[in-house]
Amino acid sequence: MDIYLILTVILSLWSMGVDGIMFHLYPNTEKCLKEELKSNVFVSGEYEVSDSPGQKVDYIVRDSNGHILSQKEDIYKGKFSFVTENYDTFEICFTSRSPTQRGIKQEVSLNIKHGIEAKSYEGLGDAANLKPMEVELKRLEDLSESISQDFVLMRKMEEEMRNTNESTNSRVLYFSIFSVCCLLGLATWQGLYLRRFFKAKKLIE
């Protein structure tokens, strides 16, 4: 019973690697989708754009530095793929081009896979002469390794955030102590100045 529960959890996590979305693209507008990805991750996607006479749609995939990873003009239906080099935020943008503003909105369907989901195990099984059960075990092995790497990355990010918080707390503490010292010094100076002033005016002895 525990094995079935573990497999259910793994398969549910596995299904989270697929991002399918559908949206409307209005004439002469641009719509972008962004996602953060780790380094050395294979990403594949499929898109389909509803037909509209006289209107064209382009797409472009780029990273946060503006480097183009994939691009195509006048698309209708197709695929794209790329491999990430660094941990970065990647975006895919669809741009509508219409000769008039009175065009019609087009429906864009986008299905993106990354990591284990983007890997083709059917071809691997055929090339290595693996049985279906062996292919599935290989898939689950890669999935467990991917989940383990995700946990390691999450722990690393948690450590970095904790270090940042501790550093910020230390700086705030030192700044608070410095501010209190400055206020005490200013208050002491003002007291001495007023004392000398009142003595000069002979208001106090």
Description of the structure:
There is one protein chain. The chain has a domain at 17-119: Jelly Rolls (Sandwich). Helix content is 44%, strand content 30%. It has 3 helices and 8 strands; from the N terminus they run αββββββββαα. The protein has helices at 2-14, 121-128, 132-200, and strands at residues 18-25, 30-37, 42-49, 56-62, 68-72, 77-83, 88-97, 106-114. The strands form 2 sheets. A 4-stranded antiparallel beta sheet has the order 1-8-3-6, with no helix packed on it. Strands 2-7-4-5 form a 4-stranded antiparallel beta sheet, with no helix packed on it. Strand 4 (56-62) and strand 5 form a beta hairpin. Helix 2 packs across helix 3 (132-200). Residues 1-16 have low confidence and may be disordered.
So what's the overall shape?
elongated
Number of helices in the DSSP assignment: 3
Q: Span from first to last CA? A: 92 Å
In CATH, what is the class of the domain at 17-119? Mainly Beta
* Strand numbers in spatial order across the main sheet: 1-8-3-6
Write down the secondary-structure element order.
Answer: HEEEEEEEEHH
In CATH, the topology of the domain at 17-119 is named Jelly Rolls
Integer average pLDDT:
82
Radius of gyration, CA atoms, in whole angstroms:
30 Å
Q: What does the main sheet amount to?
A: 4 strands, antiparallel
Helix content: 40-55%
Output the structural class. alpha+beta
Strand content: 25-35%
| Low-confidence regions | 1-16
The beta-strand count equals 8
CATH architecture classification name of the domain at 17-119 = Sandwich
